[in-house]
Amino acid sequence: MRLRINPITETPAVKFTLLGIGLLYIALFLVLPVVAVFNEALRKGFGAYFVAISDPIALSAIKLTFITAAIAVPANLIFGVAASWAVAKFDFRGKSFLITLIDLPFSVSPVVSGLVYVLLFGAQGLVGPWLQAHDIQIVFAVPGIVLATIFVTFPFVARELIPLMQEQGTEEEEAARSLGADGWQTFFRVTLPNIKWGLLYGVLLCNARAMGEFGAVSVVSGKIRGLTNTMPLHVEILYNEYNMVAAFAVASLLASLALVTLVAKGLLEWRYGHELGVART
Question: Which of 99, 100, 195, 237 has the fewest CB within 10 Å, making it most exposed?
Fold first, then answer.
């Protein structure tokens, strides 16, 4: 028998006041900035807008952004599943330390993380001379951008899956193993179906952060036009040059991606929460 908890009842005045404060906050800090971005991007018409986003340098920045996300997200997907499975399904020494390491990018400034890669792989860095001797360039090139993006985004999948897998326990996996299933069969037929919505939710958040990352990428990229500029960096350069229409045109693409992410996040939260609710009943 489930315990029912009566919701707290308030007067209509209190409810409408709280609702009004929430809506006002959303309008001021979320809706108006997005509207301003699209308004500025289209200030000179659709012709100028399409010219700005079809510029070869802008297209290069867009392409690099998608390439970076296409590498960073699968890498973090593999790491996140492996780490969450290890933390949630097994007991071992150093588990708390592993969880702390997973949370490290949340507590370290992205700029600092980018600087670490410069100190490691830069010309005067720890392994920089060896890389130069073998004609390998990481900093101020695409590999450095990818590495910095992976670092700042790798907690998202793992932190979404760890509590979910801990709540589910190990009973189903143990039952599958007792029936003769090997490790891969257990994962694909038992574990993965149970975590699929949480996994998609973590991947969505990881992808959103990868495409919008600025601080770490700004340090390691060198901001070379047409080569190492991602969309956020390209927006900054255009804005500093007072090319407002072009800057906001590219920014509107990032805003559009954010809106798509927001819608997908809401759908996943609804489906994810619904399945958890059904499982708990």
Answer: 100
The CA-CA-CA angle for residues 79, 85, 87, to 5°, reads 100
Widest distance between CA atoms in the chain? 73
Q: How many CA atoms does the CB half-sphere of 115 hold within 13 Å?
A: 5
pLDDT tens-digit readout, 231-247: 999 999 999 999 999 99
Structure tokens at 161: 């899956």
Buried b (16+ CB within 10 A) or exposed e, 206-216: bbbbbbbbbbb
pLDDT, one tens digit per residue, over 219-275 is: 999 888 888 999 999 999 999 999 999 999 999 999 998 888 888 878 877 776 655
Q: How far apart are CA 256 and CA 38, in angstroms?
A: 9
Angle at 204 between CA 201 and CA 200, to 5 degrees: 40
Give every CB contact of residue 276 below 8 A, 6+ residues apart in sequence. Answer: none
Nearest to 41 by CA among 241, 186, 255: 255
Write the DSSP assignment of 167-213 as a string of letters.
HH-SHHHHHHHHTT--HHHHIIIIIHHHHHHHHHHHHHHHHHHHHH-
Instruction: Give the type of residue at 95.
Output: K
Length of the chain: 281
Distances (CA, A) of 213 to 45, 69, 203, 210, 245: 29, 10, 15, 5, 22
Q: What is the pLDDT of residues 106-143, one digit of tens each?
A: 888 899 999 999 999 988 888 888 988 888 899 999 99
4-8, 135-139, 185-189, 237-241: least confidently modelled range:
4-8
Distance of alpha carbon 275 from alpha carbon 281, whole angstroms:
10
